[in-house]
């Protein structure tokens, strides 16, 4: 992936707003991960999304997620290897899907935002179309 500028989170637009990632499809697991980040108000049920509960794993941010910011530019967000594998497993081959994943949808460097968003996690999971549990990649 070419060098991209670092992604900076936009402030949430409302008290009941959350970020969702729109994960773009790929038929090959090795294709770089690409998504958009959108805001959704929990007070509206118009948008169907999936949520994931998972083990964070080690806090080594050694993988990159490309975030499309508008029609012409992209930025990058550093993610953990566990989140990288998770996204590759969740990514569909033929359609975009909206996901709530705390490591990406919460600005992890903004303690005030986390203090507001963490109490809303029950509502975030309750309003999701489906909640997936990620224990890690399959091992044999």
UniProtKB/TrEMBL annotation:
<dbReference type="InterPro" id="IPR010730">
    <property type="entry name" value="HET"/>
</dbReference>
<protein>
    <recommendedName>
        <fullName>Heterokaryon incompatibility domain-containing protein</fullName>
    </recommendedName>
</protein>
<feature type="domain" description="Heterokaryon incompatibility">
    <location>
        <begin position="49"/>
        <end position="138"/>
    </location>
</feature>
<dbReference type="InterPro" id="IPR052895">
    <property type="entry name" value="HetReg/Transcr_Mod"/>
</dbReference>
<dbReference type="Pfam" id="PF06985">
    <property type="entry name" value="HET"/>
</dbReference>
């Amino acid at each position: 992936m070419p060098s991209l500028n670092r992604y900076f989170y936009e402030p949430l637009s409302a008290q009941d707003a959350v970020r969702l990632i729109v994960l773009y499809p790929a038929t090959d697991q090795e294709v770089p991960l690409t998504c958009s980040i959108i805001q959704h108000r929990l007070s509206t049920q118009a948008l169907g999304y999936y949520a994931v509960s998972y083990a964070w794993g080690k806090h080594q941010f050694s993988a990159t997620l490309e975030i499309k910011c508008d029609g012409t530019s992209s930025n990058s967000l550093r993610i953990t290897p566990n989140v990288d594998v998770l996204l590759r497993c969740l990514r569909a081959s033929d359609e975009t899907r909206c996901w709530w994943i705390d490591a990406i949808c919460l600005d992890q460097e903004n303690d005030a935002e986390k203090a507001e968003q963490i109490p809303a996690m029950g509502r975030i999971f309750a309003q999701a179309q489906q909640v997936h549990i990620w224990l890690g990649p399959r091992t044999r």
